Amino acid sequence: MDITEQEKANTGLVWRKLGGDVTRAPAYGNFFAVVMGIGAQVTVVWYLLLFFFFTNLLSHVMVRPWLYYSTVILLATSGSVNGYVMGRVLRIFGREKDWKPIAAVSAILFPMFVTFAFLPLISLSGPLRLKKNLPSGEPSLLS
User: Fold this and answer.
1) Distance between CA 64 and CA 44 in Å, rounded?
2) Distance between CA atoms of residues 89 and 96, nearest Å
3) What dihedral do alpha carbons 95, 100, 105, 107 form, nearest 10°?
4) What is the distance between the alpha carbons of residues 138 and 51, in angstroms, rounded to a whole number?
5) Helical pair 79-92 and 29-54, crossing angle rounded to 10 deg
6) Cβ(45)–Cβ(69) under 8 Å?
7) Maximum CA extent, the chain
8) Residues 67-121: pLDDT tens digits?
């Protein structure tokens, strides 16, 4: 089959148009960069906790309360992964000039979400623990 020069030129033109659509920055690129950074941070913490489980570092009953502490410590120390991925995504889309406020949002948004997600759990565990440990004749805080 003979491919003419016109067909070759049209094929190149189609790829250039498609390439412009594929590499175009998203409308909310800053938010996308924040979400990508947070996702990378959560992924790193998830795989580190899985590593701890597979190596039986958190399998003993006495060590299980430390699971929450280790998760918080891992989230705090993996913030650099969040910043790195967020910065790379911003650079890919050409928005590296205004990275400081976006980094502040990324550094505050995710820890705030985790805090408010665990706050009801922590606030309910104290009174429930007190009620469980009291002898049967004494009143509790929940009754």
Assistant:
1) 20
2) 9
3) 120
4) 44
5) 140
6) no
7) 96
8) 777 777 888 888 889 889 998 998 888 887 888 888 888 888 877 887 788 777 7
